[in-house]
Specification:
This protein has 190 residues and is α+β, with helices and mostly antiparallel strands. It has helices spanning 11-18, 37-42, 46-56, 117-131, 159-164, and strands at 3-7, 63-68, 71-80, 101-108, 136-139, 168-177, 180-188. The protein has a seven-stranded mixed beta sheet with strand order 1-2-3-4-5-7-6, sandwiched between helices. The protein is globular, with a radius of gyration of 16 Å.
Length: 190
């Protein structure tokens, strides 16, 4: 299996990873941290996918996709922290005033899990942020202490996977997800 990672500019491929089976469903589409909560609550059903389709046409696109051959296998959301709700978070601290980028969601499609896709997505997101001129990239993964994490809630990533990618612990947070604390991990890209 050869995994490649590319910018998420192909909406149909993003839909394959993030989209619901029913177009009327109100699934996340990885918008909850990207847009203001009021807009997130107003976008219903197909309007959520339409919004993501528009994001895929922007420069830079909203993240990266992992491919197994030509098949979309996974997604990672990555953008400037200033363009996300993390910019205003009271639970996830700001370490300094650098214009950091945030990597906050990793999703691997069923059938592609346990094959290194999440590691490829982290590496691809780092390279994507670097290519956009990011001086630092942050992530806010779960510190599960080795405990199993529900696959639905593992979207934030697991601390050990970010450590393997060269990220270091920069700060504790007061954010908790699925009963596990989240930590702020950083990688300097300069």
């Amino acid at each position: 299996m050869t995994i490649t990672v590319r910018p998420a500019s192909a909406f149909e491929d993003v839909r394959a990873v993030l989209g619901p089976k029913s177009p009327d469903a109100n699934v996340c589409w990885c918008l909850s941290y990207r847009i203001p909560s009021r807009l997130n609550n107003e976008l219903r059903g197909p309007a959520r996918g339409d919004y993501v389709a528009e994001l895929c046409r922007t420069d830079p696109p909203p993240g990266v996709l992992a491919y197994d051959g030509d098949e979309p296998a996974g997604w990672a959301a990555v953008a400037p922290r200033s363009a996300t709700s993390f910019a205003r978070s009271r639970k996830i601290p700001h370490v300094d005033d650098l214009p950091v980028w945030s990597l906050w969601c990793i999703r691997v499609r069923p059938g592609h899990r346990k094959k290194g896709v999440s590691h490829a997505l982290i590496a691809g997101a780092v390279e994507f942020a670097r290519a956009q001129g990011a001086p630092v990239i942050e992530a806010y993964p779960l510190d599960s202490g080795g405990d199993k994490v529900n696959v639905t809630m593992a979207y934030a990533g697991i601390r050990k996977n970010f450590e393997r990618a060269g990220f270091t612990h920069a700060a504790d947070t007061t954010s908790v997800l699925a009963g596990h604390p989240r930590v702020l991990m950083r990688l300097d890209l300069r």
